[in-house]
From TrEMBL:
Keyword annotations: ATP-binding, Carbohydrate metabolism, Galactose metabolism, Kinase, Nucleotide-binding, Transferase
Source domain of life: Bacteria
Species name: Rhodococcus chondri
Lineage per the UniProt record: Bacteria, Bacillati, Actinomycetota, Actinomycetes, Mycobacteriales
Record-listed E.C. numbers: 2.7.1.6
Protein name stated in the entry: Galactokinase
C-alpha cells in the first residue's frame, strides 16, 4: 500500500468518514550547499521518493483534528488554541496560511520519511498540508503559488514552531521535479532545475540514517545562524555572498566567526562547481566536492558528530566516490555517492563501523530525484 492509501485507510478508521482528498509531499536530501540557505547562498536539494501523505476532510465547526499513528492526537480551535509537538507543524501552516473560508479540517497523516533523520520530515508534513489547504480553499498552486506556499511553511516553522530554519526544505518539498535537483538561489529566490541521472551513470546516492536524532529547536542550529549574521555585520557586507574568496574572511578577528564564514563562502563555491559538473554530465566528479563539504561542515562549521563522521569515513573507505552529512547536522543522515555495484559492500562497511563504535544500527535508503508535493 502506498503512503496515500494508508492515510486514506487511517482516515476512515479514525474519523469514520471519506476524506475530501489525499495529498503527499517528499522528504529531501541536499546534494550540496549546506547551512547556506539562511545566508543568501546557493543550495542543490533533491526530493526523495519517500513521502508524507495526508488525508483531509473539511469540517464546519472551525476545529482542527489531527491523527498520526504513534503520536498524540490533536483537537483544537486554531483561532484560539495552540499546540506543541508534531501538531505544531500543521497548526502553524493553518495559522500562517490563514486560508480564506477556512472552517476546520480533520487530517490523518502517514509518513514514510523517517522523523528526526535530517531528511526533512517536518517540511514534508508542512508542504502536504499547505498544498491540501490551498487546493481546498481555491488558492493558486502553480509554480508561483508553490513558492508562496513555501514561504507560508517557513513562517509556520519560524514563528509558530520556533525553529529558526532557512527555506531550502520547504522549497524542494513543494517545487521538486522528478529526475532533477533544484538549484535554489536564496539571495533572490530564483530556481533552476538541474538534471541528475544517477541510474544512467550506474550510480546510486545512498542515504545512511544514522539513527541519531537531530533537532532544529535545541539552540545549536540557531547559534550557527546567529554566528553567520554576526560575521556579515562585522565584515560590513550585505551578505557573505558578496565575498569572493575564502581569504576575504581573514579580516575577522574572532577565529570561530572566521571558520563559520569560511564554511559559507567555500560551500557556495562548491555548489557552483557541482552545478557545472552536473551540466557537463560529470556526475562522478561530485565525489570530491561532497568530501570537501563534509570536512568544512565538520571542521569549520562544527555541525557534525561521531555518528555522522563514522558513517562518512566508513563509506569512503569502502569505495564511495564521496560522502557527507546532510541537513542541519548534530545527528541525522549522511549521503554517499556510490557505484551501484558497490552499494551492498558499502552498506555492510557502514553498519560494521557503527557496531565497532557501539552506535545505533544505521538504516539505508536510495535517493531517487522525485517530484514535489502533489495530489494523489
Ligand atoms: C535544516 C534547515 F531546515 C534548512 O533550512 C537548512 O538550513 C539545513 O538545515 C542546513 O542546510 O534542514
Amino acid at each position: 500500500m502506498t503512503a496515500c492509501d494508508r492515510a486514506a485507510h487511517a482516515f476512515r478508521t479514525v474519523f469514520d468518514a471519506e476524506p475530501d482528498g489525499l495529498w503527499c509531499a517528499p522528504g529531501r536530501v541536499n546534494l550540496i550547499g549546506e547551512h547556506v540557505d539562511y545566508a543568501g547562498g546557493l543550495c542543490l536539494p533533491m526530493a526523495l521518493s519517500q513521502v508524507t501523505a495526508v488525508a483531509v476532510r473539511r469540517r464546519d465547526d472551525g476545529r482542527l483534528r489531527l491523527h498520526s499513528e504513534g503520536f498524540d492526537p490533536v483537537d483544537i480551535d486554531p483561532g484560539t488554541g495552540r499546540v506543541d509537538g508534531w501538531g505544531a507543524y500543521v497548526a502553524g501552516v493553518v495559522w500562517a496560511l490563514d486560508p480564506p473560508g477556512f472552517t476546520g479540517v480533520d487530517i490523518a497523516v502517514v509518513s514514510e520519511v523517517p522523523v528526526g533523520a535530517g531528511l526533512s520530515s517536518s517540511a514534508a508534513l508542512e508542504a502536504a498540508v499547505a498544498l491540501a489547504l490551498a487546493e481546498l480553499c481555491g488558492l493558486p498552486t502553480d509554480d508561483a503559488g508553490r513558492d508562496a506556499l513555501a514561504a507560508v511553511c517557513v513562517c509556520a516553522e519560524n514563528d509558530y514552531v520556533g525553529a529558526p530554519t532557512g527555506g531550502m526544505d520547504q522549497q524542494i518539498a513543494l517545487r521538486g521535479r522528478g529526475g532533477y535537483a533544484l538549484l535554489l538561489d536564496c539571495a533572490d529566490g530564483s530556481v533552476d532545475h538541474i538534471p541528475v541521472d544517477l541510474a544512467r551513470h550506474g550510480l546510486t546516492l545512498l542515504v545512511v540514517d544514522t539513527g541519531t536524532g537531530h533537532r532544529l529547536v535545541d539552540g545549536r542550529y540557531g547559534e550557527r545562524r546567529t554566528a553567520v549574521e554576526d560575521a556579515v555585520s562585522r565584515l560590513s557586507v550585505r551578505s557573505l555572498r558578496d565575498l569572493h574568496a575564502p581569504e576575504d574572511v581573514d579580516s575577522l578577528d574572532d577565529p570561530v566567526l572566521r571558520r563559520r564564514a569560511r564554511h559559507v563562502v567555500t560551500e557556495i563555491a562548491r555548489v557552483q562547481d557541482a552545478v557545472a559538473r552536473l551540466r557537463a554530465g560529470d556526475i562522478r566528479d561530485l565525489g570530491p566536492l561532497l568530501d570537501a563539504s563534509h570536512r568544512s561542515l565538520r571542521d569549520d562549521f562544527e555541525v557534525s558528530c561521531l555518528e555522522l563522521d563514522t558513517a562518512v569515513d566508513a563509506a569512503r573507505s569502502a569505495g564511495a566516490l564521496g560522502a557527507r552529512m546532510v541537513g542541519g547536522g548534530f545527528g541525522g543522515s549522511v549521503i554517499a555517492l556510490c557505484e551501484s555495484s558497490r552499494v551492498a559492500q558499502i552498506e555492510g562497511a557502514v553498519t560494521a563501523a557503527a557496531g565497532r563504535h557501539d552506535l545505533p544500527r544505521p538504516r539505508f535508503l536510495h535517493a531517487v530525484p522525485s517530484p514535489g508535493a502533489r495530489r494523489c
